[in-house]
Amino acid sequence: MPEPEAPPRADRLTTLLQRFPLQAGVFHVGGLCGVHDFDRDTGRGHLHLVRRGPVRMIGLAAGPIDIVQPTLVLLPRPEAHRLVADDREGADVVCGTVVFGASGRNPVADALPDVVQVPLAELQGSEALLDLLFDEAFVDRCGRQAAVDRLCEVLLLRLLRHGMAQGWAASGAMAGLGDDRLAPVLQALHERPAHAWTLEQMAALAALSRSRFAKRFHAVTGLAPMVYLTAYRIALAQGLLRQGRAPKAVAQAAGYASTAAFGRAFVRRVGMTPTAWMATPTGPGTLAPENETLDQPA
Questions:
Q1: Which of 6, 53, 132, 215 has its CA 20 to 30 A from that of 141?
Q2: Is the pLDDT of residue 1 over 90?
Q3: End-of-domain residue from the set 126, 150, 168
Q4: Which residues contact 7 (CB under 8 A, 6 or more apart)?
Q5: CATH code: domain of residue 79
Q6: Residue 163 and residue 179 share a domain
Q7: Which pLDDT score, from 0 to 100, does residue 133 have?
Q8: How many domains does the chain have?
Q9: 223 within domain boundaries
């Protein structure tokens, strides 16, 4: 009998999103008129998909944003902000929250700019997806909530792919995955975080000397290779802990020989023990129930 084919190797973005799954929760679709406030959110990003404007976004550190064409705005780490639409003409928008993984800090959101603003016309190949999303969002049908949530997740995946191609990230995982030499290294780290990685092994994957690899890795990602690996392991561990995994299993999955070694690394990175961290509010990485149900269309 022929040998079964090996499953295809996941690509660099899929590998990362398998560890930190993308989850969207749409809470408003329809018209906006006047001023609408959005609170600071430390555990989730906010997305605003403007189908028809104009809309002004204010309250951001970067200054106001005037949206005059169909546009997607993603705030990975949103401060309190406002959307201002004309009192008479109004605007058509889809608003939601987005989480990458089951814990607060993660390499996907951390690598993105504070404000991601992309006209929908620039998301090439997404026309059919957008038509379907707007068709589901602005008509009250059975299953509408689930449909718009999933479609927004696909749209955000397209957005991440676009961002990698455009080189949005100045540092972090997304910047490293956009670098031809570093991408194989990061993908290997993301696929096998429990492996006892050495600098020599990483450098060999990048086809660079140890010193050149270390310099390039730091210049592109903003972190030394071993510091990046530790941060990734702890972020992964936080997600597993939130899922209810036992500390011993979490330690092994994250590459630590014992729960004691894991605990020490966790304290150095997070500033508290895993037990103390688990006792904190579950806001980071969760979609609050009140944000999971969208408003009825205006």
A1: 53
A2: no
A3: 168
A4: none
A5: 2.60.120.10
A6: no
A7: 93
A8: 2
A9: yes
Secondary element (H or E) of residue 74: strand 71-75
How far is C-alpha 43 from the chain's CA centre? 11
Q: Is the pLDDT higher at 159 or at 7? A: 159
Q: pLDDT band at 234, cuts 50/70/90?
A: very high
Does pLDDT of 288 surpass 60?
no
Q: In the beta sheet, which residues pair with residue 83?
A: 36, 57
User: Could you tell me how many helices (H) and strands (E) the chain has, helices first?
Assistant: 12, 9
Residue written as token pair 């540092």? 171
Percentage with pLDDT > 70 across the chain: 89
Residues 86-118: tens digit of each pLDDT: 888 889 999 999 988 766 567 888 888 889 999
Torsion of CA 248, 250, 252, 253, to 10 degrees: 160
Lowest mean pLDDT among 48-62, 124-138, 194-208, 268-282: 268-282
Residue 105, pLDDT score: 63
Domain containing 205: what range? 173-278
**What pLDDT does residue 9 have?**
54
**What are the C-alpha distances in Å from 195 to residues 133, 251, 253, 275?**
41, 12, 9, 25
The set of residues, in sequence order, having a beta carbon less than 8 Å from that of 165 and lying 6+ positions away, is none
Tell me the C-alpha distance between 207 and 185, whole Å.
Answer: 10
Euclidean distance between CA atoms 151 and 162, whole angstroms: 17
204 vs 84, 102, 208, 211, CA distance in Å? Answer: 52, 32, 6, 12
Of 46, 49, 87, 79, the closest CA to residue 67 belongs to 49
| pLDDT given for residue 198 in this prediction | 96
Q: Are 57 and 116 in contact (CB under 8 A)?
A: no
Which strands sit side by side in the sheet containing 22-32, from one edge to the other?
22-32, 91-100, 45-52, 71-75, 116-119
